[in-house]
Inverse folding.
């Protein structure tokens, strides 16, 4: 058999990305917890993607005759509110649907940016070692020593859309307040999350860099950048994917909590945390308007946690 034939067979036997994905889905189907989590997460993703075509009302339209109505309310004018209304007569169902787009987009963006920064710092610290490791670890420990919520409050209070810096961005650059608020949230989450991700990646790289394939790459004369991006990070993806699902849930809770404290996405955009805060002012009369967004947050975070458990089972079997 010729070398070309052997190489061709090797390339044929090598699993493609689709085959690896199909195998992962097959393993996930054996985990009931993972499937429940995947169902919950996929449900909210579909809701967010299909929001423009779903038959729901305008999330910003108000009905003065339908304030704080309970679920399954029918009005004399023919309007029907499946989940009731809030204190301004806005349809809760439509605000949940459109709010899912904001929550998923900004939480995913913040998690991806935080992970990108954390992975790069962690792989540099773990592979290069020396003063690289000392400097990155020192500043990471400094940031981790701050209580996360205090760190978020400091950043958003001083650089949020209502601050001088935020108004400067809105006036000079013409940015929408929701964009300014979202970018500041991404920065805050990156400061709070990237050091922890870097610490995890550093520990994984310290183990992986002793493997034979890393030594072989160094003997071939591969650059440190190639080894870090091609040899090390892909082989650390298993634990990082599981941790990423968990951290995405933490970020969703963080964005909801910031919205509850009026430091998140600006009104009148349907922020789930702000919906809870607005309904809480009316006590038992606002219970219906408060429970539905709380349920949405809980179901989405629960789905991510269950999905992470399922992926952990896959990584143990693989």
């Amino acid at each position: 058999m010729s070398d070309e034939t052997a190489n061709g067979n090797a390339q044929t036997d090598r699993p493609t990305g689709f085959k690896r994905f199909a195998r992962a889905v097959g393993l996930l189907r054996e985990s009931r917890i993972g499937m429940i989590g995947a169902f919950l997460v996929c449900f909210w993703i579909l809701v967010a993607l299909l929001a423009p075509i779903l038959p729901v009302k305008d999330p910003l339209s108000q009905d003065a005759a339908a304030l704080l109505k309970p679920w399954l309310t029918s009005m004399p004018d023919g309007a029907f509110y499946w989940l009731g209304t809030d204190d301004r007569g806005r349809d809760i169902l439509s605000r949940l649907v459109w709010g899912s787009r904001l929550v998923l987009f900004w939480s995913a963006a913040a998690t991806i940016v935080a992970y990108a920064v954390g992975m790069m710092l962690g792989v540099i610290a773990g592979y290069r070692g020396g003063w690289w490791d000392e400097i990155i670890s020192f500043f990471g420990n400094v940031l981790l020593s701050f209580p996360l919520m205090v760190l978020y409050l400091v950043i958003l209070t001083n650089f949020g859309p209502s601050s001088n810096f935020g108004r400067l961005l809105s006036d000079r650059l013409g940015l929408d307040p929701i964009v300014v608020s979202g970018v500041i949230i991404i920065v805050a989450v990156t400061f709070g999350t990237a050091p922890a991700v870097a610490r995890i990646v550093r520990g994984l790289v310290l183990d992986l860099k002793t493997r034979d394939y890393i030594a072989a790459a160094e003997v071939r004369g591969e650059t440190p950048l190639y080894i870090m991006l091609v040899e090390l990070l892909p082989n650390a993806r298993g634990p990082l994917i599981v941790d990423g699902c968990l951290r995405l849930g933490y970020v969703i809770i963080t964005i909801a909590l910031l919205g509850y404290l009026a430091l998140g996405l600006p009104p009148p955009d349907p922020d789930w945390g702000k919906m809870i805060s607005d309904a809480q002012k009316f006590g038992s009369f606002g219970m219906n308007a408060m429970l539905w967004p709380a349920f949405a947050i809980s179901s989405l975070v629960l789905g991510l946690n269950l999905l992470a458990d399922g992926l952990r089972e896959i990584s143990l079997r693989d």
Q: What stands out?
A: The chain is about 70% helix and 0% strand. The radius of gyration is 24 Å. The first strand starts at residue 73 and ends at 74.
